[in-house]
Inverse folding.
Protein backbone atom coordinates (compact mmCIF):
# COMPACT_ATOMS: atom_id res chain seq x y z
CA UNK A 1 0.00 0.00 0.00
CA UNK A 2 1.58 3.28 -1.09
CA UNK A 3 1.66 6.32 1.18
CA UNK A 4 0.47 9.64 -0.20
CA UNK A 5 2.92 12.42 0.68
CA UNK A 6 2.04 16.13 0.70
CA UNK A 7 3.44 18.00 -2.30
CA UNK A 8 6.63 20.02 -1.94
CA UNK A 9 7.84 23.19 -3.55
CA UNK A 10 10.99 22.04 -5.40
CA UNK A 11 12.22 25.63 -5.58
CA UNK A 12 12.73 25.44 -1.81
CA UNK A 13 15.32 22.68 -2.28
CA UNK A 14 18.93 23.02 -3.35
CA UNK A 15 20.91 19.92 -4.29
CA UNK A 16 24.70 19.72 -4.17
CA UNK A 17 26.28 16.82 -6.03
CA UNK A 18 30.03 16.32 -5.65
CA UNK A 19 32.28 14.05 -7.64
CA UNK A 20 35.51 13.31 -9.43
CA UNK A 21 35.79 10.94 -12.39
CA UNK A 22 32.58 9.12 -11.46
CA UNK A 23 31.68 8.37 -15.08
CA UNK A 24 28.46 6.40 -15.47
CA UNK A 25 27.80 6.62 -11.74
CA UNK A 26 27.50 10.40 -11.99
CA UNK A 27 25.22 10.14 -15.01
CA UNK A 28 22.92 7.84 -13.05
CA UNK A 29 22.99 10.29 -10.13
CA UNK A 30 22.09 13.32 -12.26
CA UNK A 31 19.32 11.46 -14.09
CA UNK A 32 17.76 10.45 -10.77
CA UNK A 33 17.56 14.14 -9.83
CA UNK A 34 16.66 15.64 -13.18
CA UNK A 35 12.87 15.42 -12.71
CA UNK A 36 12.91 16.85 -9.17
CA UNK A 37 12.55 20.47 -10.26
CA UNK A 38 14.99 21.48 -7.51
CA UNK A 39 18.00 23.76 -7.95
CA UNK A 40 21.00 21.54 -8.70
CA UNK A 41 24.71 22.23 -8.82
CA UNK A 42 27.47 19.74 -9.55
CA UNK A 43 30.84 20.49 -7.94
CA UNK A 44 33.69 18.86 -9.82
CA UNK A 45 37.08 18.17 -8.27
CA UNK A 46 39.30 18.00 -11.35
CA UNK A 47 37.66 15.18 -13.33
CA UNK A 48 39.51 13.92 -16.38
CA UNK A 49 36.40 12.30 -17.87
CA UNK A 50 33.39 14.06 -19.40
CA UNK A 51 31.61 14.69 -16.08
CA UNK A 52 31.44 18.46 -16.46
CA UNK A 53 30.29 18.32 -20.07
CA UNK A 54 27.54 15.83 -19.23
CA UNK A 55 26.10 17.92 -16.39
CA UNK A 56 26.21 21.12 -18.44
CA UNK A 57 24.52 19.34 -21.34
CA UNK A 58 21.85 18.13 -18.88
CA UNK A 59 21.04 21.77 -18.10
CA UNK A 60 22.41 22.08 -14.58
CA UNK A 61 24.93 24.40 -12.97
CA UNK A 62 28.56 23.37 -12.48
CA UNK A 63 31.24 24.67 -10.14
CA UNK A 64 34.79 23.54 -10.95
CA UNK A 65 37.14 23.65 -7.99
CA UNK A 66 40.46 25.42 -8.30
CA UNK A 67 42.80 22.44 -8.07
CA UNK A 68 45.80 24.58 -7.12
CA UNK A 69 44.35 24.30 -3.61
CA UNK A 70 44.09 20.80 -2.08
CA UNK A 71 40.54 19.57 -2.53
CA UNK A 72 38.28 17.68 -0.15
CA UNK A 73 34.63 16.69 0.04
CA UNK A 74 34.12 19.37 2.71
CA UNK A 75 35.46 22.08 0.44
CA UNK A 76 33.38 20.86 -2.50
CA UNK A 77 30.18 20.80 -0.45
CA UNK A 78 30.85 24.26 0.94
CA UNK A 79 31.39 25.78 -2.48
CA UNK A 80 28.29 24.01 -3.77
CA UNK A 81 25.81 25.18 -1.15
CA UNK A 82 27.24 28.70 -1.09
CA UNK A 83 26.88 28.92 -4.85
CA UNK A 84 23.25 27.80 -4.72
CA UNK A 85 22.33 30.22 -1.94
CA UNK A 86 23.94 33.08 -3.85
CA UNK A 87 21.87 32.27 -6.94
CA UNK A 88 18.48 31.21 -5.57
CA UNK A 89 16.86 33.04 -2.64
CA UNK A 90 13.97 30.56 -2.39
CA UNK A 91 16.12 27.68 -1.06
CA UNK A 92 15.22 26.58 2.47
CA UNK A 93 16.60 23.04 2.46
CA UNK A 94 19.87 21.65 1.14
CA UNK A 95 20.34 18.08 -0.06
CA UNK A 96 23.88 16.74 -0.36
CA UNK A 97 24.59 13.77 -2.62
CA UNK A 98 27.80 11.97 -3.50
CA UNK A 99 28.23 11.58 -7.25
CA UNK A 100 28.39 7.77 -7.01
CA UNK A 101 24.83 7.60 -5.63
CA UNK A 102 21.40 7.38 -7.24
CA UNK A 103 18.69 9.20 -5.27
CA UNK A 104 15.56 7.13 -4.67
CA UNK A 105 12.27 8.40 -6.08
CA UNK A 106 10.39 9.62 -2.98
CA UNK A 107 13.36 10.60 -0.85
CA UNK A 108 13.35 14.37 -1.47
CA UNK A 109 9.63 14.62 -0.73
CA UNK A 110 9.88 12.40 2.35
CA UNK A 111 12.84 14.32 3.82
CA UNK A 112 11.31 17.72 3.01
CA UNK A 113 8.02 16.88 4.73
CA UNK A 114 9.78 15.49 7.79
CA UNK A 115 11.82 18.67 8.25
CA UNK A 116 8.71 20.78 7.70
CA UNK A 117 6.89 18.88 10.45
CA UNK A 118 9.75 18.73 12.99
CA UNK A 119 11.17 22.14 13.83
CA UNK A 120 13.82 20.77 16.20
CA UNK A 121 15.40 18.51 13.55
CA UNK A 122 18.19 20.09 11.54
CA UNK A 123 19.15 17.23 9.23
CA UNK A 124 17.76 13.90 8.08
CA UNK A 125 19.16 10.93 6.22
CA UNK A 126 17.60 7.66 5.18
CA UNK A 127 18.63 4.22 4.03
CA UNK A 128 21.76 4.17 1.87
CA UNK A 129 22.25 0.78 0.23
CA UNK A 130 24.92 -0.68 -2.00
CA UNK A 131 23.86 -1.18 -5.61
CA UNK A 132 25.95 -4.33 -6.05
CA UNK A 133 26.55 -5.79 -2.58
CA UNK A 134 26.95 -9.29 -3.96
CA UNK A 135 29.67 -8.39 -6.49
CA UNK A 136 32.58 -8.23 -4.00
CA UNK A 137 33.08 -8.86 -0.31
CA UNK A 138 34.22 -5.24 0.04
CA UNK A 139 30.95 -3.91 -1.36
CA UNK A 140 29.12 -6.18 1.05
CA UNK A 141 31.07 -4.72 3.96
CA UNK A 142 29.97 -1.24 2.88
CA UNK A 143 26.35 -2.38 2.68
CA UNK A 144 26.52 -3.62 6.27
CA UNK A 145 28.13 -0.36 7.37
CA UNK A 146 25.28 1.70 5.89
CA UNK A 147 22.65 -0.35 7.75
CA UNK A 148 22.45 1.75 10.91
CA UNK A 149 19.43 2.10 13.24
CA UNK A 150 16.63 4.55 12.43
CA UNK A 151 15.66 7.29 14.86
CA UNK A 152 17.70 10.01 16.51
CA UNK A 153 21.33 9.81 15.49
CA UNK A 154 24.61 11.52 16.28
CA UNK A 155 25.38 12.14 12.61
CA UNK A 156 24.55 11.53 8.97
CA UNK A 157 26.61 10.08 6.15
CA UNK A 158 27.51 11.86 2.92
CA UNK A 159 23.91 11.96 1.66
CA UNK A 160 21.47 14.01 3.73
CA UNK A 161 19.03 16.93 3.70
CA UNK A 162 19.36 19.82 6.14
CA UNK A 163 18.07 23.30 6.86
CA UNK A 164 19.97 25.78 4.69
CA UNK A 165 19.99 28.56 7.27
CA UNK A 166 21.32 26.24 9.97
CA UNK A 167 24.13 25.32 7.60
CA UNK A 168 24.97 28.98 7.13
CA UNK A 169 24.74 29.72 10.85
CA UNK A 170 27.27 27.01 11.68
CA UNK A 171 29.68 28.09 8.94
CA UNK A 172 29.21 24.97 6.83
CA UNK A 173 31.65 22.09 6.78
CA UNK A 174 35.07 22.48 8.36
CA UNK A 175 37.41 22.98 5.41
CA UNK A 176 40.35 21.47 7.31
CA UNK A 177 38.61 18.11 7.79
CA UNK A 178 39.52 15.76 4.92
CA UNK A 179 37.40 12.79 6.08
CA UNK A 180 34.49 12.45 8.47
CA UNK A 181 33.31 15.97 7.70
CA UNK A 182 29.62 15.10 8.11
CA UNK A 183 29.89 13.77 11.70
CA UNK A 184 32.02 16.80 12.59
CA UNK A 185 29.36 19.15 11.18
CA UNK A 186 26.61 17.28 13.03
CA UNK A 187 28.63 17.46 16.25
CA UNK A 188 28.66 21.26 16.05
CA UNK A 189 24.92 21.25 15.30
CA UNK A 190 24.24 19.08 18.32
CA UNK A 191 26.18 21.46 20.54
CA UNK A 192 23.61 24.08 19.58
CA UNK A 193 20.70 21.86 20.51
CA UNK A 194 19.69 20.61 17.07
CA UNK A 195 18.58 17.01 16.44
CA UNK A 196 19.71 14.71 13.63
CA UNK A 197 17.44 11.87 12.55
CA UNK A 198 17.75 8.78 10.39
CA UNK A 199 14.45 7.94 8.70
CA UNK A 200 12.98 4.60 7.69
CA UNK A 201 13.02 5.45 3.99
CA UNK A 202 15.15 4.46 1.02
CA UNK A 203 17.44 7.38 0.25
CA UNK A 204 20.24 6.42 -2.13
CA UNK A 205 21.84 3.54 -3.98
CA UNK A 206 25.61 3.75 -3.59
CA UNK A 207 28.21 2.20 -5.87
CA UNK A 208 31.35 1.62 -3.84
CA UNK A 209 33.08 -0.15 -6.75
CA UNK A 210 35.53 -1.78 -4.34
CA UNK A 211 37.26 -4.76 -5.90
CA UNK A 212 40.57 -5.11 -4.07
CA UNK A 213 42.05 -5.38 -0.60
CA UNK A 214 44.12 -2.28 -1.41
CA UNK A 215 40.92 -0.21 -1.70
CA UNK A 216 39.61 -1.67 1.56
CA UNK A 217 42.92 -0.82 3.24
CA UNK A 218 42.84 2.79 1.99
CA UNK A 219 39.25 3.21 3.14
CA UNK A 220 40.15 1.98 6.63
CA UNK A 221 43.20 4.24 6.64
CA UNK A 222 40.93 7.18 5.82
CA UNK A 223 38.64 6.23 8.73
CA UNK A 224 41.61 6.22 11.12
CA UNK A 225 42.61 9.67 9.90
CA UNK A 226 39.03 10.91 10.41
CA UNK A 227 38.92 9.61 13.98
CA UNK A 228 42.28 11.20 14.79
CA UNK A 229 41.39 14.57 13.29
CA UNK A 230 37.98 14.63 14.93
CA UNK A 231 39.54 13.79 18.30
CA UNK A 232 42.17 16.49 17.78
CA UNK A 233 39.44 19.07 17.19
CA UNK A 234 36.86 18.12 19.82
CA UNK A 235 38.23 15.22 21.87
CA UNK A 236 38.66 17.34 24.99
CA UNK A 237 35.08 18.64 24.93
CA UNK A 238 32.47 17.23 27.31
CA UNK A 239 31.35 14.60 24.80
CA UNK A 240 34.97 13.45 24.27
CA UNK A 241 34.37 13.29 20.54
CA UNK A 242 35.95 10.17 18.94
CA UNK A 243 37.95 9.44 22.08
CA UNK A 244 36.73 5.84 22.33
CA UNK A 245 37.46 5.21 18.65
CA UNK A 246 41.00 6.54 18.94
CA UNK A 247 41.75 4.60 22.13
CA UNK A 248 40.39 1.43 20.55
CA UNK A 249 42.69 1.80 17.54
CA UNK A 250 45.68 2.53 19.77
CA UNK A 251 44.95 -0.49 21.97
CA UNK A 252 44.83 -2.99 19.10
CA UNK A 253 47.85 -1.55 17.31
CA UNK A 254 49.94 -1.44 20.51
CA UNK A 255 48.85 -5.00 21.28
CA UNK A 256 50.05 -6.15 17.85
CA UNK A 257 53.39 -4.43 18.32
CA UNK A 258 53.72 -5.89 21.82
CA UNK A 259 53.07 -9.41 20.55
CA UNK A 260 55.75 -9.33 17.89
CA UNK A 261 58.18 -7.55 20.20
CA UNK A 262 57.51 -10.30 22.71
CA UNK A 263 58.43 -12.93 20.13
CA UNK A 264 61.83 -11.27 19.71
CA UNK A 265 62.58 -11.02 23.43
CA UNK A 266 60.55 -13.85 24.96
CA UNK A 267 60.35 -16.37 22.15
CA UNK A 268 57.40 -17.92 20.26
CA UNK A 269 55.36 -18.35 23.44
CA UNK A 270 54.43 -14.68 23.12
CA UNK A 271 52.37 -15.61 20.07
CA UNK A 272 49.78 -17.10 22.41
CA UNK A 273 48.56 -13.54 22.91
CA UNK A 274 47.32 -13.62 19.33
CA UNK A 275 44.42 -15.68 20.65
CA UNK A 276 42.76 -12.43 21.71
CA UNK A 277 42.06 -11.66 18.06
CA UNK A 278 39.88 -14.72 17.30
CA UNK A 279 38.11 -14.19 20.62
CA UNK A 280 37.28 -10.62 19.59
CA UNK A 281 36.16 -11.78 16.14
CA UNK A 282 33.79 -14.35 17.65
CA UNK A 283 32.43 -11.75 20.09
CA UNK A 284 31.65 -9.29 17.27
CA UNK A 285 30.27 -12.05 15.05
CA UNK A 286 27.90 -13.15 17.82
CA UNK A 287 26.54 -9.62 18.22
CA UNK A 288 25.58 -9.13 14.56
CA UNK A 289 21.87 -8.92 13.65
CA UNK A 290 19.98 -12.03 12.60
CA UNK A 291 19.33 -10.73 9.08
CA UNK A 292 22.99 -11.29 8.20
CA UNK A 293 24.09 -14.75 7.15
CA UNK A 294 26.56 -16.41 9.49
CA UNK A 295 29.35 -16.17 6.90
CA UNK A 296 28.69 -12.50 6.15
CA UNK A 297 28.64 -11.63 9.85
CA UNK A 298 31.91 -13.52 10.33
CA UNK A 299 33.64 -11.68 7.47
CA UNK A 300 32.39 -8.36 8.83
CA UNK A 301 33.80 -9.22 12.27
CA UNK A 302 37.19 -10.05 10.73
CA UNK A 303 37.23 -6.74 8.86
CA UNK A 304 36.51 -4.78 12.05
CA UNK A 305 39.31 -6.46 13.98
CA UNK A 306 42.05 -6.39 11.34
CA UNK A 307 40.87 -3.04 9.98
CA UNK A 308 42.45 -1.52 13.09
CA UNK A 309 45.87 -1.93 11.42
CA UNK A 310 45.23 0.45 8.48
CA UNK A 311 43.17 2.66 10.80
CA UNK A 312 46.25 2.88 12.99
CA UNK A 313 48.31 3.91 10.00
CA UNK A 314 45.84 6.70 9.21
CA UNK A 315 45.81 7.81 12.84
CA UNK A 316 49.62 7.95 13.03
CA UNK A 317 49.85 9.79 9.71
CA UNK A 318 47.51 12.48 11.01
CA UNK A 319 49.40 13.12 14.24
CA UNK A 320 52.79 13.07 12.51
CA UNK A 321 51.63 15.66 9.98
CA UNK A 322 50.04 17.72 12.73
CA UNK A 323 53.26 17.76 14.75
CA UNK A 324 55.34 18.64 11.69
CA UNK A 325 52.86 21.31 10.62
CA UNK A 326 52.15 19.70 7.25
CA UNK A 327 48.90 20.03 5.33
CA UNK A 328 46.41 17.20 5.08
CA UNK A 329 45.41 15.69 1.76
CA UNK A 330 42.41 13.56 0.88
CA UNK A 331 42.87 9.78 1.08
CA UNK A 332 41.19 8.21 -1.93
CA UNK A 333 40.18 4.58 -2.20
CA UNK A 334 38.57 4.81 -5.64
CA UNK A 335 40.63 5.06 -8.81
Amino acid sequence: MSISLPPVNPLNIGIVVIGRNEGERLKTCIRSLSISGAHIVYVDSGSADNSVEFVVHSGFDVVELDMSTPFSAARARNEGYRYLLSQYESIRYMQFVDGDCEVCGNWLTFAYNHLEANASVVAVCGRRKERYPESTVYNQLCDIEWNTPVGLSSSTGGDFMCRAQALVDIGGFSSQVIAGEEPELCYRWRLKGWLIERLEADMTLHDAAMVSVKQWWKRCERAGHAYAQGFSLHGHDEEKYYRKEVLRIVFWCVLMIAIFSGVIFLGPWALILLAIHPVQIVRIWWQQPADLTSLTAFIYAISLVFGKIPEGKGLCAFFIKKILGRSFHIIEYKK
Observations:
- The mean pLDDT is 90.
- The longest helix spans residues 243-266.
